[in-house]
């Protein structure tokens, strides 16, 4: 028998992993009545946010339309860090290595120039001398951004959810939403064991949003990351090794984090396997999956040892790899298609979506590049 609540919440947040937990935090902080729903108890291993860490950088290879959001995100991360006991914001810097004629390199440079972000440009020789761990020839250059670094996802999501609860949010976890119905005066949200009512809704369901909105142009992709022994101590955070991205001329794209506990985490951004649900994400395979980063470790990055362990995760890819953030109607907002680069924006997206849902101050930050109607043929179907 389903539990059927009479209460009408000001706002329901469907999916409380990365963005959803931030929306719930900022909305409940404003004193609104908030319902947070998730299929699991976040943080968990079944979405897009696990694997401990995510890179944050501001000079942005994906385009300078992201930079104002990133700068606001950074100041919200700092504000949250000041109120949080455990350290989640590690400003260890980042080195972005790419051929200078690549779009990624040119975009980083132009966004740094436009927004006056502090960067150092290094030749391959200077890069190899400065960090002693790289082996690139003159065809490559590196852009070092000292204010970049990484975020600890598990600490952040726990913190957002605990604080939202303290502000009075109701948490309905371990229940999956199967249906959303627009009634004349409210939205009815049906899960496997309950029904809820809310005036506004934010859908932040990550890779699995298509079970609710099958026409959205989202492709979930299975991804892996790998923890290798750091044999060379210059790879460690304590020795000043930064985060990195590497774009090879072959278009292979890698990223990584400074080593801690003698392990260095490395991933590959391009590639992966298209999937349609969590079950297809299947377990990490030591022999097969680690091969994805073989070329980087064998040729360009010096000093890693044996594979210690790996994990699988998923990207929610949009067709152009830009975010989808929009109103579906005057009650429901959707955020998805973060395409493997969304975590660093979670603070600012949570803040904006919460304010918009509650009719509070509108933002000066421009979300128009992320509107669904850029995929004109699809928009009407999704919004119907
Ligand atoms: C391998 C990997 C590396 C990455 N590296 C970076 C990086 O370095 N920097 C960066 O900025 N970003 C990175 N990202 C991307 C970033 O992690 C994601 O963009 C971000 O976590 C997505 O957040 P989300 O809120 O959309 O999804 P999630 O955090 O997955 O949250 C979605 C939530 O919705 C819930 N849900 C789904 N369907 C339902 C339903 N029907 N009912 C109830 N609940 C539901 C899920 O259980 C989940 O908790 C990486 C991602 C991966 C996979």
TrEMBL record:
UniProt keyword list: FAD, Flavoprotein, Oxidoreductase
Pfam families per the UniProt record, alphabetical: DAO
Domain FAD dependent oxidoreductase: 10-356
Keyword Oxidoreductase attributed: yes
Cofactor: FAD
Domain of life, per lineage: Bacteria
Protein's recorded name: N-methyltryptophan oxidase
